Amino acid sequence: MCCGGTLRRGPLATVSGRIDEVTGRGGKTEHPLIPAWAWVLLEPYVDRRLEACGLANPSPRQTLEELARLWPDLSCTLMVQEPWMGTIRFKRLLRLRGDEMRPFFEDPEGFLRERFGGGKFKMNLHHGMNFVNTKNFKPEGPPRWQAVPELAEE
């Protein structure tokens, strides 16, 4: 279901000033839920869902309401590129859902470096079973991820 209901209290995003447009407040929001780099990945999906509901030109409020509806079912899977049988594969390390994603979104390279060290990482965003987008990261440091067991598929 999309585009229905009323705005839930809770997760909203600072998206190119859209919260300010919706709330009428000026200036920056102190604790944005979604940094600009992550919104760039989510915006096309949110826009497609709204368009499928007949909202080709949604208001900022409608965009934020849809994001709030999607948020609990959004997840990101963190993987690392590793050599495998003469080629490469992506080892699944961690899946974060909804609010669990906030620390990663705030500082993705720091989050990865602190938990897994350096390497070539890939983040896949999903909404339920739907693929949303992907982004690569390459923090420097020793590859501590090698000692981390692979996350089983769900």
Descriptive notes:
There is one protein chain. With 154 residues, the chain is an alpha+beta fold. The protein has 2 domains: 18-72, no CATH class; 74-147, no CATH class. The protein is 31% helix and 24% strand. It has 5 helices and 4 strands. The protein has helices at 18-23, 36-52, 60-70, 102-106, 108-116, and strands at residues 74-84, 87-97, 121-127, 130-137. Strands 2-1-3-4 form a 4-stranded antiparallel beta sheet. α2 (36-52) crosses α3. The radius of gyration is 17 Å and the shape is elongated. The model is unreliable at 5-31 (pLDDT under 50).
Q: Could you give a quick summary of the protein structure above?
A:
This protein has helices at about 20-25, 35-50, 60-70, 100-105, 110-115, and strands spanning about 75-85, 85-95, 120-125, 130-135. By secondary structure, the protein is of the alpha+beta class. α2 packs across α3 (about 60-70).
